[in-house]
Amino acid sequence: MNLYSNLREYAMHFEVVSLGEILVEIMRKDRDVPHSVPAVYLGPYPSGAPAIFIDTAANLGLKSGFIGAVGDDDFGTLLIEKLREDGVDVSRIRVVKEYTTGTTFVMYYSSGTRKFIFHLRHSAAGQLSLDPLDRKYIAESKLLHIMGSSLAVNEKSREACYEALKIAEDSNIIVTFDPNLRPELLDVETIRRICWPAIKACRVILPSRDEAAALTGIDDPVDAGRKLISIGPEVAVIKMGSKGSMAITRKEVIFKPSFKVSEVDPTGAGDVYDAAFAYGLLKNWRLSRILEFANAAGAIKVTRFGPMNGPSSIREIEEFIRKHRKERTHIDSLI
Questions:
Q1: Any domain includes 11
Q2: N or C: the chain end with fewer CB closer than 10 Å?
Q3: Concatenated DSSP letters for 250-288?
């Protein structure tokens, strides 16, 4: 089956829809400071993996809509206004008076790894459900993006995501899936089990190298990608951070190196990458071009503090790529 074989014209409003946790993130100012000691945090910053994805999709010019829930509080107001300002349709974000908006506290180690404390299961973010309008919202889109973290929040959120996958299947729309494993929410064995329906249903799976290994038990990224596409996806995209990313299909393996930048904050880079990949997918670009474009979008994100502070436009990404191509050409000419 051709990767783009099911793309067609829709009489619809949204090109991309996502659903799941929307939250504020409160981040340690300094690295290597554990949550167990008093110290400075910064924030709140708009966050939540599917929310970062959809915000980036809107910034890239895609007609984007989000299904989620926030509390009737200042954090909820912050989140809705951020998405609205960036062009996301927020009409399907419910304000749940009985719950507070989801939050997460995050600290960084010098190694680049992170440690989270989540308040999601018993927050508004954990009250995700679909009503008839939400179902129509999904069915009339071109692409549905699902995050593994949304499956892990609680059973209610998981069932809403599974229902969305069934709607997408019945409506013959593209599904992209980022496993986005969060061991702070669930153990790896449980995560593998709950991700299975999404892996089978998606057209493209977008794990990090570590996530691909955790899902398959295979360390080699190419072999892990091949194992994943044997389950259902047409393409496995393995994100490898500072090394770049690769796409594995049944016919080929394509690798694109990363862009060298000074890292400020990696939070959200994978979600930004996913949105850029979805953009290229909907534009019918070649996989090699999509990988380069998504690598550039992720690279821009890591240079900025705050989970939702990624590239603001297609033009910004394209100019970033042109600039780095010129730099590479100049360096090569000196060798």
A1: no
A2: C
A3: SS-EEEEEPPP---S--TTHHHHHHHHHHHHHHTT--HH
